[in-house]
Design goal:
By secondary structure, the chain is mainly alpha-helical. Helix content is 32%, strand content 0%. The protein has one domain (15-75).
Length: 79
């Protein structure tokens, strides 16, 4: 996340009202609702946007291994 998301959704910028610096902030979400639903990867907008290649909008996308790791993290409660 630090590599792909924090530039636009971190301390200096929170595009679409989304802050991805903490689990609580991800669960609160932004204009589109919660970015993270622990235990439910299919309901987590963060993962959906990555899988649909909407995020990040520019530059390198996360690779399959990174996406699998994110999916497992969400599935196991995002702790």
């Amino acid at each position: 996340m630090a590599t792909y998301c924090i530039e636009c959704h971190g301390r200096n910028a929170q595009e679409a009202g989304l802050d991805l610096r903490s689990i609580q902030a991800m669960m609160k979400g932004g204009e589109s609702g919660p970015a993270l639903v622990p235990g439910q990867p299919d309901e987590s907008l963060l993962l959906t946007m990555i899988l649909d290649s909407h995020m990040p909008p520019d530059g390198q996308m996360p690779n399959r291994r990174e996406i699998d790791l994110l999916t497992r993290w969400i599935l196991h409660g995002a702790n």
